[in-house]
Amino acid sequence: MAYLLLLHQKMSLKRKVNKLTLEQTSIGTRKDRITKRIENVQKAYARKQSKLEAQAKQMTSMTNSIMNNRMMAMSQAYRMVDANYFLMTETAPCYDEEYVRLYKEMTEAQKQGTDSQAFKDAQKAFQDYMQNDDFKTRMQQAQSAATQYNNQIAIQKQWQQQMMSTFTTNVNDQVSIWLEAQTQALEDEEEMALAPLNEEDTQIDIEQASNEAQLSYAQSRLESIESALQSQTQEAPKFGA
After folding, report:
1. Cα angle at 116 between 114 and 117, to 5 degrees?
2. What is the DSSP string of 114-129?
3. pTM of the model
């Protein structure tokens, strides 16, 4: 009778072990699927984050490029001058018509070669004129005007540079603030999207652990019963021996 009871328990446990093993396979499949879904969501939000960072980088680069171009244009606009600028500019108070005429004649004569008599004569006339006391006075005035002009240009240029630098810094700071806010919003959205998946994943883990424990216990019981059946088989009297 005991043997039949053990045999019944063995068959029942074998069915249970088979059932739990099948469930464990099913749970493993569900675990793989939920893991894949979680990974897909994470990858999708990682791509969104990369796009945000690329957009922020583009805005920063665009601002820096615009400011660099303006800096180059400003450098051209705020060029330093020498005394010749005030001697040869008609609207300047130091303009010297004779100085301009002699300079142009020397420049034209130079085209014939620096060894030509025309160039030597024009050069001598130009140099003699520069020794004139009236010209020396105008030259001093032109040099003073150039110094004053260059100082003003330097101040204006420095002020413009500071303005552009401040503007660039402010824009880049605003881009950083925007990126931080967008990143936080994206992280919150991702957390909400992952919440039900993570909850399902946790439930599967709990179910898997419980099933593993039941399977382990059932297998252990099955082994014990099989051992007991084997012992009873060996101890049973053998007729006709």
Report:
1. 125
2. TTSHHHHHHHHHHHHH
3. 0.65
